[in-house]
Amino acid sequence: MDRRHFTGGLLMAPGVLLSSGCAAGNNLSRKPQTDQELKGMGYIAANDQIDPLPVPPKGLEGVRVYGFTDTGVQIIGTWFGRKRGGVGIFGGATFPRWVRVTYRGEITDPLTKRNIYKGDVFAEYHIEVLSRIPEEVFAFLYAPRDPELKRAIRLKFRIKADGVLFGWDVEQMNLGRPPQMGNIKYAMMGGDFLDDMGRPFDSRDLIDTTK
Predict the structure, then answer these.
(1) Alpha-carbon separation of residue 123 from 5, 18, 73 (angstroms)
(2) Global pTM value
(3) 102 three-class SS
(4) Is the pLDDT of residue 30 over 50?
(5) CA distances to 96, 139, 147 from 93, in Å
(6) Domain residue ranges of the chain, discontinuous segments joined by +
């Protein structure tokens, strides 16, 4: 997954909500709690598979992985053995309280003879999202700063044969700096894994939160 190219282009897409110091319409400086406060926040969602690449585990060949938020937004759509991760920007979407991830098999449509993913459910996982992210992550998201520094919480999901790991961080883009100069940086990592979707963070990609 080419994080810089793929994510960077989406962050600058028209209509994508990124915080520049307060939540749009909410003027929050703390962790949102009510449905109204969560509405329209926007976020980034990424997923990857460290294990079992490059071969799907036995019994999971062709099994699709779907992830839906509590408001019905699909943020994960992949399959076991996929070599690349996925990234989506959900600008203006309601920030999820939880995500339900389902592993589902495929069946052959008798009319079209094509495989469709409406087969047996192999597993289903309920992932708490909002309740797990600490207050200080949202405080950092909304902290006053240069208006060219846009921030969003990145929700990270690692798909494994025996379950789903969940992590998070804050992604910041400097709109006044060209991409080749490293205009995307990260801070406030937490959760079940702390890496940058399968690789260690480069120190040059980290925000100094002590300033």
Answers:
(1) 33, 34, 19
(2) 0.82
(3) strand
(4) yes
(5) 9, 19, 21
(6) 3-205
